[in-house]
Amino acid sequence: MELATLLKKPFLKGFINANLRGFLRDKETLQQSLQQQALTIQTSHEDWMVQQWRQQFGKKKTAEICHANNQPPTISLLLNPAFDGQALKADLKQQEFSIQENAPNSITLDNPTGLFNTTWAQQGAFLVQDLAFQKIPGLLQSIKKTKVLDACAAPGGKLFHLEWSFSSEIEQLVALEPSEKRLQRLRANKDTFKSKAKLYQMDARNITLEEQFDLAVVDAPCSGTGTLRKHPEIKWSRQKSDFIKNQEIQLAILEGVSKNVTPGGHLLYVTCSIEKEENQDVVEIFLKQRHEEFQLIPFSADLLSPEERTQEGYYQCFPSQRTMGAFAALLQKKK
């Protein structure tokens, strides 16, 4: 009121009074509403997104996800086995990079400034891959991988990781990418990493290849809600309806790829989403309503922690201090 007088705008006094009286009248309702939306406000997430996660994961896990999404992103590197990993790590430390070793072939950096100007980067001594996805090839140790198809390959991280992990088993490696621009990037990365993969510009929904594969990998386009640490704009650029739109595309890709899986072969479905509509629902619709000739192969409890393995046997990694969010399901075509 005093400010309105100082500004010589007495006509604002009635407006201010009305709002203050309204606040006092509805004080309890307003405070209750703020308490219900406290996490939304504190962590700058859309309310519908928070409510959806609460329904799926509960209040505690949702709070952990929201706070993890606001942490500064780290960068994890998978080391190329063709290079001396110990020499690489020693050299990066000498260049004053702060390194956390995750495994003999994996490191995490808090600040990658200057990393990609190093000789190591230019020679293809490592690729950038979040820890949540570095775990996936280890889940495939027991299955046949003579002929492998990566149906949504660009920019190539999972493709090259599979090639490095199973070089003695893979005899044929094929990668598809519908976008010419992304295919160019994939070609450049193939040259950098000296990959033997055969690349095609092709939409996985309409595969014209006649080959049958022991393993087909579908890293499906999705909402990316597991990557908000790296892409915070997703908080506001996504709508709930996007999940169902994505689901239709994901199912169409699985439909297209399923024809090229040999009987007894496997289909690996992967996303960087944490949404049920894009993960579990896609798998269940595919298996129960469209392709009964496929079955779910649960990931072994020996390979995943209880927090990472769902009751059904899916791999579900939530955003945390160390990882992005990820989902994977392994299907097998019956003989």
Automatic annotation (TrEMBL):
Give the residue spans that cross the bilayer: none
Q: Please name the Gene3D superfamilies in this protein's record.
A: Sun protein, domain 3, Vaccinia Virus protein VP39
Signal peptide annotation: none
Q: Which domain of life is it from?
A: Bacteria
Residues annotated for S-adenosyl-L-methionine binding in this entry: 152-158, 177, 203, 219
What does the record give as the active site? Answer: 272 (nucleophile)
- According to the entry, every stretch annotated as the SAM-dependent MTase RsmB/NOP-type domain falls at 41-334
Keywords from the named record: Methyltransferase, RNA-binding, S-adenosyl-L-methionine, Transferase
Q: Which organism is it from?
A: SAR324 cluster bacterium
Family stated for the protein in its record: Belongs to the class I-like SAM-binding methyltransferase superfamily. RsmB/NOP family.
Protein name stated in the entry: SAM-dependent MTase RsmB/NOP-type domain-containing protein
InterPro entries found in the cross-reference section: MeTrfase_RsmB-F_NOP2_cat, MeTrfase_RsmB-F_NOP2_dom, RCMT, RsmB-like_ferredoxin, SAM-dependent_MTases_sf
What one GO molecular function would you report for this record? RNA methyltransferase activity
Q: What biological processes does GO assign it?
A: RNA methylation
